[in-house]
Amino acid sequence: MFRNSSVLTAFLLATCLFSCSEDKGGTPAGGGTGGAGGSGATGGGGGSAGMVPSNAAFCADSCIGSEFTPATGRPVNSCCVAVGEPGRSASNPYLLRTTDTDEYSDPKGGPPDLSCFDAANYPKQPPPDGNKKKASLAGVITTFANGGCVAEDLIGSNAVTVEVYTVQRTGDPATDGALGTLVGTALVANDQMPIEQEVVTNCNDDPKLNRKYEYPDVPMYTELVVKSYGNGWAPLYSYNLYISEDDPDYDAGTNSYDYDVRALAEGDFQTIPTVAIGKTITAGNGAIGGEVHDCNNIRLQFARVDVSVGRKGLVYFNDDEDDPLPDVTRTDIGTGKTALYSALDITVKDPKGTYARLAGAGLVPSSDGDKLVSLGYFDVRVFPNSVTSVTLRGLRPFQVPK
Predict the structure, then answer these.
(1) Helix, strand, or coil here: 276?
(2) In the chain, is it the N or the C terminus that has fewer CB atoms within a 10 Å radius of its CB?
(3) Which helix (H) or strand (E) element contains residue 314?
């Protein structure tokens, strides 16, 4: 999920990598090194348990393969993942909903919705035989980064191929999160797909020319992965797709689910690592990227995330929705308006993918002191020379503890 920047921008960002920070003192809001935990952190600031979020009961038995291991500068135990301490921004220590982006925003600026992590509000389980129901995925094929500015970008010799897979859940790191069965037949973008224009600022002020698509007969109430790839496009595996009839993106009238498929230009696959960590992704390695949302699928700012596997760097992005770039001044602060993050240069030991868990945490105010909260987790696989995309968006029915 990367976008090319100018040489000057890349140089300035890379120069800033090890020297820029909004809070150079590194002291969390609320005081000392344990301040972000407040009265809501049941694990305190030290010890092998780490700082445990107050709402983490939902993930107590979810860990796969290993227990929590603290890492340097990452004391929070969010569902067995070592995450950096939130609340370190001088301007605002607390989770904040985005109000002014085109997608996934709350213009009213309400408080973050974290209710789905409470046992009384866990998402309901699917109806009997729910996974036998089918719907169409429908939306546009578009680019996260470069491309899409001319009609031929997504078709012809540069056609984007889209595949939908079920997900294997085995509880074994060797196989958990692996691709299951291919759903239907791969879809290849073509000139018969209508163009839908998108107003952006990064196509020389011309609109982006997305292609409308429909992928039929996708199983509902089933965990799915969408893969996009092609000549000139790096493989992008998008996890955390789950179609239910009570999801606002599901249209009962057309029996379709509104879902936009992203394509990632191969050149952009290396741009963000070059800017953010000063080197390209090692051949054969991969990355994890995505957004952090609340239970109502609204973008969250000032959230911290991390992954359970080794990575060369983790970066958050700036506030430009049309042209998101890594913002190294946010390294110790967390997500911006776009809620974007990326964990870079992850070692992939298996051609079929390496297991990894993503988890998030944040800080909210409460009557009895600042409260450390979990923002959920998701188990994925990272594939060679590819990006795994996963957006945290609350607790999913298949994650509800037994």
Answers:
(1) helix
(2) C
(3) strand 313-316
